Amino acid sequence: MLRLKGMGDLARLLKESWSLVEEHQDKVAGYFYARIFLSHPDLRDLFPVHMDIQRSRLLNAIVTAVQTLEDPEKFDDYLRGLGRDHRKFHVEPAHYEVVGGALIEAMRQFAGEQWGVEYDQAWADAYAVIAAKMLAGAEADTNPPYWYAEVVSHERRASDIAVFTVLPMQPLEYRAGQYLSLECPRFQPRLWRTYSPANAPRRDNTIEFHVRAVGAGWVSSALVRRLEVGDMIRLAAPMGAMNLDRRSTRDAVFVAGGTGLAPVKSLLEELTRYNRTRWVHVFFGARTRDDLYDLAELNRLAARYPWLSVVTACSDDPTFPGEQGNISDVVARYGPWNEHDFFVSGSGQMVKATMRTLAELQVPSVRIKYDSFGD
Ligand SMILES: Cc1cc2nc3c(=O)[nH]c(=O)nc-3n(C[C@H](O)[C@H](O)[C@H](O)COP(=O)(O)OP(=O)(O)OC[C@H]3O[C@@H](n4cnc5c(N)ncnc54)[C@H](O)[C@@H]3O)c2cc1C
Ligand code: HEM
């Protein structure tokens, strides 16, 4: 098995060498793709039609992985999962060498005279270890690289929110609380984004999604405004660890912002199948009451299951009759919470704010699971 020697040294070499090209990132990205596509024109078809070189996902992802995964052994599961996930892009083993070579060439090109052979070696070593783990993950995967799924219902719940249900053509196994990759070939081919099923796995295999169209978002706006019943989408690679621990006897708190409600609904559906003993509190926040797009369904669940309570809040709707303020602050008005399991899901900002609140309330971090939808 491949192992990196002198981890501290390697990390230093990687950081030092990246600092030589950091300010020319756009040029490095341009050269990186040009090199790949000139030597292997067939690889162009793996990438989105409109590529934003400045926000290059692949180059940024590789550089981040190589720089932050100082000890790849610790990130074994993540890297194997990433390799499995790459099957949806039609990545083949031989492509790894092409991409790794282009990366080092591109950095060397813009680093100037200070670039040395020890930098070449450091990037080649780190990349090789990461690539080997990704390839092993891909090879061990017995699932199809993606699943086709037909849209069987689509409902606009607010100007920028849709709830839709799809039926995969083959059974797709995932755990409540996980997320899937989704591509909408009719409108945005080869752009994959992650979305969280809003239901636990069902016998009829249908999967519900809750999507909010963000700003100029390519995929989310297509899913909310253009997707129709009968369209085919593709799904891939269940991922994520925001799952219920069946052995836990602690009461649970779910904190959801906007469509962050989706994985919470999935976990709630799982709880409805077996829970008798745990009190469960849902805090659901949005800017205005129109954004509380699934409140009727939440209230129906709360009426049916005596162990469930729901608190709603609006941050930007002064006449809303529920709580006022950010959901992260509203949680702190209730409690005490130091004996509970926490599940937090929503925008990056909302998750960050909630984690801060929970730290202040001295909730041990091992009891908190979260999914952040943003950076
Ligand atoms: C684990 C996970 C689970 C997710 N589950 C869901 C889900 O169930 N429902 C859901 O609606 N979304 C979910 N997301 C977010 C989703 O994956 C996309 O990031 C989002 O839909 C935007 O994609 P896009 O292609 O429309 O935007 P892009 O074209 O990627 O981005 C366009 C612009 O919008 C900005 N932007 C991107 N995301 C956000 C955001 N969340 N808020 C504000 N600005 C943003 C970008 O910075 C960029 O400037 C999840 C994300 C993760 C990481
Ligand atoms: C060390 C090796 C690699 C790592 C760490 C890596 C990592 C990643 C990550 C994390 C993403 C997701 C980025 C996002 O969604 O924001 C991504 C996207 C992608 N990767 Fe890789 N990758 C590697 C190798 C490869 C190879 C060899 C190919 C083959 C050409 C490839 C093709 C792609 C494509 C097509 C995308 C989507 C790009 C886009 O949407 O713009 N990757 N990669």
TrEMBL record:
Sequence ranges assigned to domain Globin in this UniProt record: 6-139
One Pfam family linked to the record: FAD_binding_6
GO molecular function: 2 iron, 2 sulfur cluster binding; heme binding; nitric oxide dioxygenase NAD(P)H activity; oxygen binding; oxygen carrier activity
Superkingdom of the organism of origin: Bacteria
Keyword tags: 2Fe-2S, Heme, Iron, Iron-sulfur, Metal-binding, NAD, NADP, Oxygen transport, Transport
Domain FAD-binding FR-type residue range list: 144-245
Keyword Heme: yes
Catalysis performed (reactions): 2 nitric oxide + NADH + 2 O2 = 2 nitrate + NAD(+) + H(+); 2 nitric oxide + NADPH + 2 O2 = 2 nitrate + NADP(+) + H(+)
Cofactor(s) listed: FAD; heme b
EC number per UniProt: 1.14.12.17
Protein family: Belongs to the globin family.
Entry protein name: nitric oxide dioxygenase
Origin species: Actinoplanes nipponensis
Lineage of the species this protein comes from: Bacteria, Bacillati, Actinomycetota, Actinomycetes, Micromonosporales
